[in-house]
């Protein structure tokens, strides 16, 4: 074999090797690992969607990690996470920072309507709560409202709804939504504030047991009572309805964007509905009988 031929052969091998490595590292939505950060309040629906994705794409491994909403968002900005679940609306400055750090347009992938709910022990005589009571109670030194933690999605959302900063509100804390429900009967004059997805699964035994310990208070607004049921969330009439959405820092169609697309398709939306939440993307069907 002469030297020119050897050189050509080596060049070809090098090029083919480079192409092979490039193909191995090319984006893929149907294989690989992904960690999803979510607040505890919507952990259940996130895990259900992750399980559905792994069933459809067995070569993927999705891990759901709970982290306070604001901290998860910071991890996304600092490239410590590829995808987070959010509920509160970002401020213009936060959107600007996201687009600067991630170098992507801010396009929240909305997938479900959830709610922040106000609960009391099932033995309580209280049957409803008004917006005025909520506003005044969160300014009172009595600290009659108990949240599941500081920096939690529930606290952030309620503060935003009332046009306040979380630090301006007065409240107590029992860490963890499930712990809050378990401990609430020790404080009969207090009102717990949790996410509906904590116990929204209709036929899940653990959810049923949690629901049986408390009752959800309808919220009175302008003389009308609103409940966080499907209709209340779908029509956004329940005052504390919130939209859950994904944010990613992935510019290509890799596993994070694949998971987002799956969650917003019909199958993903069916999973959302089985979680007892209102799907964001409603698929209307019309059947014509002839």
TrEMBL record:
Residues 30-263 form the PBP domain. SUPFAM superfamilies: Periplasmic binding protein-like II. Keywords: Signal. InterPro entries: PBP_domain (IPR024370), Phosphate_ABC_transporter (IPR050811). The keyword Signal applies. PANTHER family: PERIPLASMIC PHOSPHATE BINDING COMPONENT OF PHOSPHATE ABC TRANSPORTER, PHOSPHATE-BINDING PROTEIN PSTS. This is Substrate-binding domain-containing protein. It comes from Chryseobacterium camelliae.
């Amino acid at each position: 074999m002469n030297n020119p031929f050897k050189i050509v052969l080596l060049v070809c091998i090098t090029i083919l090797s480079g192409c092979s490595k490039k193909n191995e590292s090319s984006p893929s939505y149907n294989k690989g690992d992904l960690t999803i950060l979510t607040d505890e309040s919507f952990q259940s629906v996130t895990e259900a969607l992750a399980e559905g994705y792994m069933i459809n794409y067995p070569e993927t491994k999705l891990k759901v990690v709970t982290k306070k909403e604001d901290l998860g968002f910071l991890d996304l900005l600092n490239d410590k996470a590829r995808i987070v679940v959010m509920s509160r609306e970002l401020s213009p400055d936060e959107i600007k920072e996201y687009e600067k750090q991630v170098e992507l347009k801010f396009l929240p992938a909305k997938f479900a309507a959830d709610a922040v709910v106000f609960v009391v022990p099932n033995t309580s005589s209280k049957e409803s709560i008004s917006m005025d009571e909520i506003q005044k109670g969160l300014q009172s030194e009595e600290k009659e409202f108990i949240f599941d933690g500081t920096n939690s999605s529930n606290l952030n959302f309620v503060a935003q709804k009332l046009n306040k900063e979380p630090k301006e509100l007065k409240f107590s804390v029992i860490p963890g939504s499930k712990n809050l429900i378990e401990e609430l009967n020790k404080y009969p004059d207090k009102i717990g504030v949790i996410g509906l997805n904590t116990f929204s699964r209709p036929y899940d035994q653990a959810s049923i047991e949690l629901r049986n310990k408390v009752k959800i208070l309808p919220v009175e607004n302008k003389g009308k009572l609103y409940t966080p049921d499907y209709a209340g969330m779908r029509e956004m009439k329940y005052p504390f309805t919130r939209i859950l959405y994904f944010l990613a820092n992935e510019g290509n169609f890799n596993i994070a964007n694949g998971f987002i697309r799956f969650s917003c398709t019909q199958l993903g939306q069916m999973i959302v509905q089985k979680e007892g939440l209102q799907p964001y993307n409603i698929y209307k069907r019309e059947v014509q009988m002839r």
